Amino acid sequence: MTSVVLSVRGLSVRFLMPGGRRIAAVTDAHFDVTAGECLALIGESGCGKSVLASALLGLLPANAQTAGEAHLADLDLLAADERTLARTVRGRRIGLIPQSPAAHLTPVRTIRSQLEETVAALRGVQGRKALRAAAEEAAERAAFPADHLDRHPHELSGGLAQRAATALALVGDAPLLLADEPTTGLDRDLVDHTVDELRRHVDTADRALLMITHDLAAAERIADRVAVMYAGRIVELTDAAAFFGETGPRHPYSRGLLAALPDRAFTPIPGMPPELGALPDGCAFAARCDRTTAACTAVPHLTDAVACHHPHVPEGIRA
Amino acid sequence: MLELRAITAGYDRRTPVVRDVSLSVEPGEAVGLLGPSGCGKSTLARVAALLHRPDSGTVLLDGEPVHRWRHRAPRAHRTAFGVVFQQPRLSVDPRLRLTDLMAEPLRATGRRNEIPDRVAELATAVGLTPDLLTRRPHEVSDGQLQRACLARALVLRPRWLICDEITAMLDASTSAALVAAVEDYRAETGAGLLAVGHDHALLNRWCGRLVRWDDLGPAA
């Protein structure tokens, strides 16, 4: 239960831009994901969530610099060379469930042909009959209907395309699944369904799942723990039940995000997030926060699960 | 009053996406149209915005039937509608700066002199800061671009707003801010709204009247 699959320590990503500008996309991220656990990384678009995922897979563009460590068992993903990542990590030790399955699948080939290729590459299955059987078995694991295997991606609905992409991600039996906005553009029923299936894949094989999303309802449904990211930093890392439950989150930004939900107060957080290329000194959220004091000119560090100088205190402890 | 009567529409005459659907929006009313993915609600929204000619049925704008669509529609009809789409990236010209993007409808209708005032006013209303206005779409986030798209839809002061899943790509706080901007505009001008989406909680909170796709028209 406590076996740590992914351990991220002090991960930072900087993009060097023309003219010497530096974009601080991710700053000093620390977190673990253990087997059988789902960690949801939430935050608004452009806060650095997807860059973090790309960094773990070694898929950052050439102008990116990384610092820190990300250990997948004994391997440091940030220090590994491209050859190691390509031959032993992607697909084999980390399965990626992409943001837009329709764009991730090859449009000119059927789902069966893509599954067979993946099975052959990752599991070394050979021979036409064996490949066919292995591909069908892989489809079945993700509940992809066998009679749709000979279709092309454009002939699939959003939900089925998502299952096809999930089937591909599961082929390698990777201990870590990385889902990057897996529910964008799906309607509520499909979101619930997709998320429940992801949860099932976590539970049945004791996989670890890092799910990146801005959909709070999906995160609430699936996550064991929640990490909230703001302006490239993880500002709160806590238990999902407490976060979405009565206790509520402690960081003012997390509270603001939840309060913006239509079934809660539906009030937006005032202002807009800062530019990652021109972050203010001190707390990046201070300009939008109603609890700002002089202390907020210093960067708060993640202590006791929250990075804030004035976190909300749970009711029980205050008394 | 915006009335859709017995609309059948689609992209192939043999298999219409929308069959015999009727819907009306009163001035000042906010109607939320709720339906699952792929049910045809976006097509209906395009018909309502005069962007897609239905195969049959009538669209009535203040009692007058509409005969021409898209660019052939008379200017008074075209400018009566403000439309915001789901994917801001796909609905803007990537070469235009945000300020030009927002001012384009004014240019197209020969009202250049109003540009400076109106753009500044709208930038504040949708929450865009001046430094963002000089950027091009690839230099801003989805949320910021969608704010600019909303400003573009409001720039001609339309009497009808059609919002097709405008918050599907966005986080909770940006969604709430966009909806607040739409509601401020409607409170000020009394414009009618047709909001299309699949998020029951959102549309229920946003719109005065909620219509389910399955309840529209005769049982399909």
From TrEMBL, chain A:
<keyword id="KW-1003">Cell membrane</keyword>
<protein>
    <recommendedName>
        <fullName>Nickel import system ATP-binding protein NikD</fullName>
        <ecNumber>7.2.2.11</ecNumber>
    </recommendedName>
</protein>
<dbReference type="InterPro" id="IPR013563">
    <property type="entry name" value="Oligopep_ABC_C"/>
</dbReference>
<dbReference type="GO" id="GO:0005524">
    <property type="term" value="F:ATP binding"/>
</dbReference>
<keyword id="KW-0813">Transport</keyword>
<comment type="similarity">
    <text>Belongs to the ABC transporter superfamily.</text>
</comment>
<dbReference type="InterPro" id="IPR050388">
    <property type="entry name" value="ABC_Ni/Peptide_Import"/>
</dbReference>
<keyword id="KW-0406">Ion transport</keyword>
<keyword id="KW-0547">Nucleotide-binding</keyword>
<dbReference type="InterPro" id="IPR003439">
    <property type="entry name" value="ABC_transporter-like_ATP-bd"/>
</dbReference>
<keyword id="KW-0533">Nickel</keyword>
<dbReference type="GO" id="GO:0015833">
    <property type="term" value="P:peptide transport"/>
</dbReference>
<keyword id="KW-1278">Translocase</keyword>
<dbReference type="GO" id="GO:0016887">
    <property type="term" value="F:ATP hydrolysis activity"/>
</dbReference>
<dbReference type="InterPro" id="IPR027417">
    <property type="entry name" value="P-loop_NTPase"/>
</dbReference>
<keyword id="KW-0921">Nickel transport</keyword>
<keyword id="KW-0067">ATP-binding</keyword>
<dbReference type="GO" id="GO:0005886">
    <property type="term" value="C:plasma membrane"/>
</dbReference>
<dbReference type="Pfam" id="PF08352">
    <property type="entry name" value="oligo_HPY"/>
</dbReference>
<dbReference type="Pfam" id="PF00005">
    <property type="entry name" value="ABC_tran"/>
</dbReference>
<comment type="subunit">
    <text>The complex is composed of two ATP-binding proteins (NikD and NikE), two transmembrane proteins (NikB and NikC) and a solute-binding protein (NikA).</text>
</comment>
<keyword id="KW-0472">Membrane</keyword>
Automatic annotation (TrEMBL), chain B:
<dbReference type="Pfam" id="PF00005">
    <property type="entry name" value="ABC_tran"/>
</dbReference>
<keyword id="KW-0813">Transport</keyword>
<protein>
    <submittedName>
        <fullName>Nickel import ATP-binding protein NikE</fullName>
        <ecNumber>3.6.3.24</ecNumber>
    </submittedName>
</protein>
<dbReference type="GO" id="GO:0016887">
    <property type="term" value="F:ATP hydrolysis activity"/>
</dbReference>
<feature type="domain" description="ABC transporter">
    <location>
        <begin position="2"/>
        <end position="219"/>
    </location>
</feature>
<dbReference type="InterPro" id="IPR027417">
    <property type="entry name" value="P-loop_NTPase"/>
</dbReference>
<dbReference type="GO" id="GO:0005524">
    <property type="term" value="F:ATP binding"/>
</dbReference>
<dbReference type="InterPro" id="IPR003439">
    <property type="entry name" value="ABC_transporter-like_ATP-bd"/>
</dbReference>
<comment type="similarity">
    <text>Belongs to the ABC transporter superfamily.</text>
</comment>
<keyword id="KW-0067">ATP-binding</keyword>
<dbReference type="GO" id="GO:0055085">
    <property type="term" value="P:transmembrane transport"/>
</dbReference>
<keyword id="KW-0378">Hydrolase</keyword>
<dbReference type="InterPro" id="IPR050319">
    <property type="entry name" value="ABC_transp_ATP-bind"/>
</dbReference>
<keyword id="KW-0547">Nucleotide-binding</keyword>
<dbReference type="InterPro" id="IPR003593">
    <property type="entry name" value="AAA+_ATPase"/>
</dbReference>
